[in-house]
Amino acid sequence: MRLAMVLIPIGIREDYDLTFRFYEKKLRIIPCDKTLLHWRDYDNRTSRTSEHYAQNYFLDIKLHYFLKLDYDPKRSLVIRGAGFKGKKIAKSLKNKNIAFSWICDNPKKIGKEIYGKTLQPFQELDTIENSQSIVTVANERAQKEIKNYFKKRHLQPMTDYFFFC
After folding, report:
1. Rounded CA gap, 110 and 121, in Å?
2. Fewer Cβ in 10 A, N or C end of the chain?
3. In this model, does residue 119 exceed pLDDT 70?
4. pTM, two decimal places
């Protein structure tokens, strides 16, 4: 048996990183009906209580692997959503000098400028050819509507659009 030591940057959860490494290597995960590990889970463990395990801290690793594995620089990149996650993604893309369009359906945010980008109404996506979308909308009802929008246009998940929720 060959063992390998994997160095993981501080701040990245090792199991989350491992999941993306499986994805990167196109490994399949198959079900197993046998107990392979007994895990003690308790309410006050760090992954349940530390702010560093909050969902928003996983955005950096999601964006890292999206840019490494799925992003196509020949396509127009679009961010959908202007909440905390959308802003975090937009700021990171801007810092990496990656061009993107930014759309949302919040009338209070449409037309506003954030990080040098003017937020456009979501209908603007119909005018952007050959796009890849990062969706940061957390509302489940809105997510279903967004998925239906993409489905009607024959766009494929994990190729044409990605949910970062």
Report:
1. 6
2. N
3. yes
4. 0.79
